[in-house]
Amino acid sequence: MSDVISRRTRIVTSRALTLTPERPAALRGLLALVVGLALVLAQTLAAAARDMPGSFADLAERVSPAVVNITTSTMVAAPTGPQPMVPEGSPLEDFFRDFMDRQQGRQGERPQRRSNALGSGFVISADGYIVTNNHVIEQADEISIEFFSGKVLDAEVIGTDKNTDLALLKVDSDEPLPFVKFGDSDASRVGDWVMAVGNPLGQGFSVSAGIVSARNRALSGTYDDFIQTDAAINRGNSGGPLFNMDGDVIGVNTAILSPNGGSIGIGFAMSSAVATRVIDQLKEFGETRRGWLGVRIQDVTPDMAEALGLASASGVMVSDVPEGPAAEAGMQAGDVILSFDGQDVTDTRELVRIVGNSDVGATVPVVVQRDASTQTLQVTLGRREEAERTIPASAPATEMQPETGSVLGLQLSELTAPLRDELGLGGNEDGLVVTAVDPAAEAAEKGLQVGDVIAEAGQRPVSTPADLEERIADARDAGRKSILLLVRRAGEPRFVALTVDE
Hints:
There is one protein chain. The chain is of the alpha+beta class and about 500 residues long. It has four domains: about 1-50; about 65-75 and about 100-290, Beta Barrel (Thrombin, subunit H); about 295-390, Roll (Pdz3 Domain), CATH 2.30.42.10; about 405-500, PDZ domain (Pdz3 Domain, Roll), CATH 2.30.42. The protein contains 13 helices and 28 strands. The strands form five sheets. It has a seven-stranded antiparallel β-sheet with strand order 5-4-1-2-3-7-6. Strands 22, 23, 24, 25, 26, 27 and 28 form a seven-stranded antiparallel β-sheet that branches. Strand 25 (about 455) and strand 26 form a beta hairpin. Helix 1 packs antiparallel against helix 2 (about 25-50). The radius of gyration is 31 Å and the shape is globular. The model is unreliable at about 85-90 and about 390-405 (pLDDT under 50).
């Protein structure tokens, strides 16, 4: 196509620039300009045609030797006696499995059998480090790696990370192994060509191609940053690489969205921007070491922004500051985090990602808005994994019988000693207990429930219904349309903005 365009352009150029008495010099100059623009357009179209691959064969041939099939073996309890005929993947499968487990439990310990599973992976170094998904090798007793050449080696687990579903394996080889490198997933754009290689449904070393359908997808994890692609990904592709056209790995194929378990063109690969840091830490430490700020946070909604006098609903609201790095740096509940270590913060997901990618022990500047002014706090980060092992579980909330007295559609009671005991609260906590919620009120729409404790209103403590009414009056006098409440449920705090317009 590009050759045809260039040939026709040269013919038009030759005819346009032919000297004739009928064509004055000025006209010939204008025609020359037009033809020059046509040549530039032709070259642009030709370049675009070259960017569209006519075949993926060369790329597949180059990278396939570094892609591996993974077979895992695990000892599981074997079924005994007659088994119901239930199609795999049927909604009844779990029901019958639970039923048979109960039946076998009554009959004593069940015999063991070996179960096998399949997945994919890719070699990232000549000395045998291999990347795959955590769920591919989780709880496996034996891990076998089959290479494109047909060679089979046993692998050991170097480290895993459930948060990103990544794992690092290692094999010992007598000779250097072919490997691939991670690329820059942040440089990929929606619409770029990509190629997936793996072991779908146990077929082995299968290639599929498509485009980047979307970026920065979040599924269910805290650190999710998935590339969505329509390159076919099926069971067994998990842990395999997603390549760009340079042959660099920009994602680790992890999950699919499908009503029937097969590919429908919606697959997800964990971006290399996340994977490279995780894999580097697993290789160095055998585990992840993420930064920890030590706050409970929530997104700033438009009504919360109005209640706080913020120009826009951006930043992250701090709902609680337990003992930890942020508390030691002077951060307070009600602060709005605007930037972290020089990076602007727009929502909770972004802040968690930035903090998690920061070095443990680093001291970073955190800009917060407090009482209509900004402050810069210097926070020395802790380690998230250590904090998660020591944070106690919250006590369950307890419902109470409704009492009289209503503010903003809420029946409220002072927090007495018996109520503290019933709710599992400490003796130094104050606030108002919600004993009933008008289902037609905005409070119900915003999710307030019986048993919630309102600790603050307008970023000031409240301990009686009169305190709350006074805060509401102050907000109205200040021209506010809403008031911000700090609500604790089962020990977990969050901010809720309620309208105070008369």
